[in-house]
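To whoever picks this up:

The parser on our side crashed when reading a file containing two proteins. I've narrowed it down to the boundary between the first structure block and the second sequence. Both blocks are reproduced below exactly, byte for byte. First block:
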Amino acid sequence: MNFDYSINHDILGRLYIRLDARARRFIFRATEDGIRVTAPACSTERHVCEAVERLLPELTALKKKANERYKKRCIDASFVINTPDFKMKVVEGDVGLPRAEMKEGDILITCPPNTNYEDEHLQSWILSVVEKSLSTIAKWLFPLRMSELSARTGLQFSTLKIKKSHGRWGSCSINKGINLSLYLVLVPRHLQEYVMLHELCHTIELNHSARFWQLLDSFTEGKAQLLRKELKNYNTCIPNFSQTS
């Protein structure tokens, strides 16, 4: 998601502010790297700061809860991702330095024996390998699926971009531009479709009104709210997709 500007708060950390002509009030959402603020288009930085100070106890609790939710364990030799669209695993082998390779369509990361998996540089490198791989798959896969769903529903979008967004699976602009998180590759395909349909419906209904949910229900056999609830079992924290082999 694109933001208009950001503010550094002494207690809450970085606040990312997006001005939205459709917003009628301030909406706060905590993610692993800060707090997202959706503000009415007429809001100034002073208005945002005043709202933050009024709600500081609630926002502090929200940030604490998000930190706990996004807390990541180390990606180590027990780490495996096994989904229909993406498979990878970390193993130890006879190598001098960690390396990544594509093997039969899967990502294999090999680390030397006695690797210190708590090393921040190693964790950053592994995560970058995963994210680059996810981005490559998403940029190939999602345009095809979005085009199919657009043709099926008759709902048109203007552009599709793949973002490394945390805490949000997708978004739709007033100009019908759709953004999808690269982490969406990791959720089941029926939930991928739900997110894509959700954003396509926003090309017609820009909010979450009753008409929006009725429209989305018409494309999901009346299961929009059930799918929304199921999607909450997933988030964009990579280790949450790990399975021990």
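<<boundary where parser fails>>
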Amino acid sequence: MSDFHFLIVEDEELYATKLEMLVEKLGYSVQAQVDNSADALTEIQKQIPDIILMDINIEGEYDGIELADMIHQKHAVPIIFITSLEDERTFKRASRTGPVGFIIKPFNDIQLQRSVEIVLKHLHQNLANSSVEDSSEWKEDLVSQKEFFIKTRNQLEKVVFTDILFVEADGRYCKIQTLKKKYLVRIPMSELIGKLPANYFQQSHRSFLVNIEKVSSVNLQDNILLLGDMHVPLSIRKQEAFLQRLNLL
């Protein structure tokens, strides 16, 4: 069984069962199957899934689009929307949350399989590309006000906070880009934010945490931050708070 885990958010039992059967047929794990927004948020608090298959019209306080937006404010989890709604307004609302795919009901196994495999291929490539260094372990007991240690294989490496350029969320991992190298650490962004000193770091995007002292320029036309020769996105939602941290507002 693969390490990739799916969360299914679907309030029609027939489709929920169909989704779970296909995910398992493809060799992946179903973390949970829920039919409402509250239970989905509870499951994500327990464990951040690698992929979410979510109907737009679900039970609970929030619909699938509102729920996706809430999830993406904290976690960069790929979401595939599954819906019977084909109107342009719903599509535009859903598109703003940045889903990785849409599947229209009724769908067949081949349609679902191809959509899932495209996302999984992208996830595999991201992990492969980011693993320039071996996947590392955050050492919770080796953190001070200025630095922390991560464990790569049998070696402890010190990382100074001021040497970090930015952090990029990658599902249940974070890519920590320093001045000299990149680390892939198995810790979600939501947890890492609470462990890094707030006086150094500010979110520029739901998936990026930036060392504000390393920002060399801001491109407001393209919504991009420059950190030396590296580019990091600056989302419209985060722009005002970020520019205030840079004393530009």
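After patching the parser it read the second block fine. The CA atoms of residues 65 and 95 lie 9 Å apart. The chain has two domains: 5-130, 135-245.
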